[in-house]
Design brief:
By secondary structure, the protein is an all-alpha fold. Helix 1 runs antiparallel to helix 5 and helix 2 runs antiparallel to helix 3. 81% of the residues lie in helices and 0% in strands. It is built from 7 helices and no strands. It has a single domain, classed as LemA-like domain (de novo design (two linked rop proteins)), CATH 1.20.1440.
Length: 197
């Protein structure tokens, strides 16, 4: 075997080892995205468990606001269904988009519930309502941190898959860019809230 053949063999082995390393890194980063979504999933389930308790306590004071309470439960159920679909495939952009939309509806319904609750001093003073509200607020903060971690992992994966020469391995093995979780999806929702007195 000539020197040229040895050089070609060595170069081929280097390329192979590099490709295996690039592939393994992309797999590791993709698994990190799935793990980050699992952390969001845990916090969302915690929120979904708190909401019926909150509605039950509020229902004692807001009997004539049944429509608001029913809207919260319906939005919670829709969000929970979307969360379960996304948890089954956390790398599916469509499932994540559906989850984002359902979460926005739930946030709107919860906002209306809290706005109505503001008009009822007895409800605001209820110890259980305060505790549940604090738990929910704490959970919302955890969800926010988990979403940030998820987006950080997505960014790292997308950057790694888009940089040359790892881009070659990403395209060969269909490592598609992953979608980030966004707070809102439309320009109208992103616009600042206008308050008029």
């Amino acid at each position: 075997m000539g020197a040229t053949n040895w050089v070609l063999l060595a170069a081929g082995l280097l390329v192979l080892f590099w490709a295996v390393g690039a592939y393994n890194r992309l797999v590791r980063l993709k698994n990190a995205i799935a793990n980050a979504f699992a952390q969001i999933d845990v916090q969302l389930k915690r929120r979904y468990d708190l909401i019926p308790n909150l509605v039950e306590v509020a229902g004692k004071y807001l009997a004539h606001e049944a429509q608001t309470l029913e809207a919260v439960i319906a939005a919670r159920n829709q969000a929970q269904k979307a969360e379960q679909a996304a948890a089954g495939n956390p790398l599916n952009a469509g499932a994540l988009g559906a989850l984002t939309g359902a979460e926005q509806l739930l946030g709107g319904a919860m906002g209306r519930l809290f706005a109505v609750a503001e008009a009822y001093p007895d409800l605001k003073a209820d110890q259980t309502m305060r505790e549940l509200s604090e738990e929910l607020s704490s959970t919302e903060n955890r969800i926010g941190f988990a979403r940030q971690a998820y987006n950080d992992h997505v960014l790292e994966f997308n950057d790694a898959a888009a940089q040359f020469p790892a881009l070659i391995v990403a395209r060969l093995f269909n490592f598609a860019p992953q979608a980030m979780l966004e707070a809102t999806t439309s320009e109208a929702e992103r616009a600042p809230v206008k308050v008029r007195f």
